[in-house]
Every structure is written in structure tokens, then in C-alpha cells.
Amino acid sequence: MSTSADSPLEPPLSRRDRALILGALLLVCALAWAVTARWAAMMDRMELMIPAEASWSAAELALVFVMWAVMMAAMMLPAAAPMIAAFAAINRRRRQRDAPYVPTAVFLAGYLLAWSGFSLAATAAQWLLSETGLLSSMMEPNSRALAAALFIIAGLYQWSPLKRVCLTQCRSPLGFVIAEWREGARGALVMGLRHGIFCIGCCAGLMLLLFAVAVMDLRWVAALALLVTAEKLLPWPALWRHAIGGGLVLAGIAVAAGFAD
User: Fold this and answer.
1) Are residues 204 and 210 in contact, defined by beta-carbon separation less than 8 angstroms?
2) H-helix or E-strand containing 123?
3) CA dist., res. 102 & res. 97, Å (int)
4) What confidence score (pLDDT) does residue 259 get?
5) Proportion of the chain in helix, strand, coil states, percent, rounded to 5
6) Where are the chain's structural domains?
7) What does the pLDDT read at residue 216?
8) Distance CA 241, CA 149 (A)
9) What is the pLDDT of residues 155-189, one digit of tens each?
10) Which residues have C-beta within 8 Å of that of residue 221, sequence separation ≥ 6?
């Protein structure tokens, strides 16, 4: 890792730069949410169905991967805005001083690359659950035991040391920059990739809850996105982390007992 004297001490973004970055993120998020909502509507009208068994074609596998990738972009980019802004602030100052700088899009590409890897794993998990009959062609769970187990596992993970470490990294853009700064386009890509991996460690448990409800249920997608954003951006992260964990464990117990039918 190569460090830079610029990285920890950059001034905040100007209003113009902040508006440009937030505007670009909002546009990407809006497009991702629009596509996700369109797919959810198609599921409701049964125009978009995934095979319930293992006979998936390459096109269907690709469709599921793209679906997950777009959905992850819609859910995760709002919570990543402070980190993206911190990276942009550093490069704004370097550009003003005619020093080497890297477009913020390179960092963002590394971040999205990490979540694309998660989307690939989620696609494989969906194929396996469909093959074993645990997931329907409408991408809803066929097993109460599976749904309950996923809620409880996600809840317990909220209390784990790994979750705490990853959440700390996600909530500390400046600390991440100081520890992880790398020069050049390759360095920016690696930084984005590493931050994306921390983000996966923070949120993967919550994302997998989609298998416990319905992968393309827009209400759950929105609810999980709000939970992710809340615990990353709002005060009292420990309170959010533990409260969400307790709520998920209780929900799992309710599902297992049949109270959530």
C-alpha cells in the first residue's frame, strides 16, 4: 500500500462537486430501482418466471445474475455515498494542484465489482435452492424451516465480531482512506474492491433474507435497503446492529412457530 499526504487531510467537497456526485448517484440508483420495480411487476403478472428445477439455460442464469446485480446497486449505493464523496474530495484537491488523480468512477467500479461477485454467489444459491425444490419459480421459499433459519442466522450474524468490524469500516470513510489509500487507477480500483468487500461482510446476511421472503418482493427490497442505510449512516450504530439482530431472531422464531403465515 502506498500512502499519500493528501489522503487524510482533504477539505470537504464544494457544493457544486457534492451536487454533481450526489446527482450521479441518484441517477444510477433511480435507474436501478426503476429496473428492479419493472422486474417485480413482471413477477406479479407472471411474465418473468425462473425455472423451479435445475433446467436453467445460460440465458436464464444470466438474467438472474443481472437481476441480482441491478438490485444490489439499487440497495447499496445510497449507503456508500459518504465513502464515494470522501474519495472524490481527495481527487478534487489533487486535480486542483495538477497532481495525478483518478476519476471517482474507477473507485465506484471496484465497489460494484465486489457486489457483482456477491450477485454471482447469490445466483448460484438461487439455482441450488431451485434445484432442491426449496425455492419456487416465483422466487419464493417453499420451506418454512429454510425461511426461519435464514432469519435466525441473519439475526445472529448482526451480533458477530465480523459484522461489527465490517460495519465500522463502512461507517468510517476517513479511517478507510487513511488505512487503504493507493495511488493510480489500479489503486483506486483495489480500494473500491476492498471497501465493497467490507460492505458485503456488513450486509450479506440482510441480503440473503430475500431468500426467506421473496427475492423480487419490492416491499422487502425497500425495507432491507432502509435497514442497511440506517445502520450505516444514522447515529448509534451498535443500537441499530443489536436491535435489528434481535428483531430478526424473533421473526425467525415466529416463522418457525407458524405465527407469520
Assistant:
1) no
2) helix 104-131
3) 13
4) 63
5) 75, 0, 25
6) 10-257
7) 72
8) 19
9) 999 999 999 999 988 888 878 888 888 888 899 99
10) 36, 40, 71, 74, 75, 210
Is residue 224 classed exposed, middle or buried when 0-12, 13-18 and 19+ CB atoms within 10 A define those classes? buried
Q: Is 106 helix (H, G, I), strand (E, B) or coil?
A: helix
Sign for the pseudo-dihedral over CA of 144, 145, 148, 150: negative
Check: pTM over 0.70? Answer yes or no. Answer: yes
Tell me the CA distances in angstroms from 199 to 52, 63, 112, 146, 170, one per residue in order.
Answer: 31, 24, 11, 25, 6
User: What residues have CB less than 8 Å from 32, skipping those under 6 apart?
Assistant: 70, 71, 73, 74, 77
Q: 189, 106 in Cβ contact below 8 A?
A: yes
Alpha helices in 132-183 (DSSP H): 144-158, 161-171, 173-180
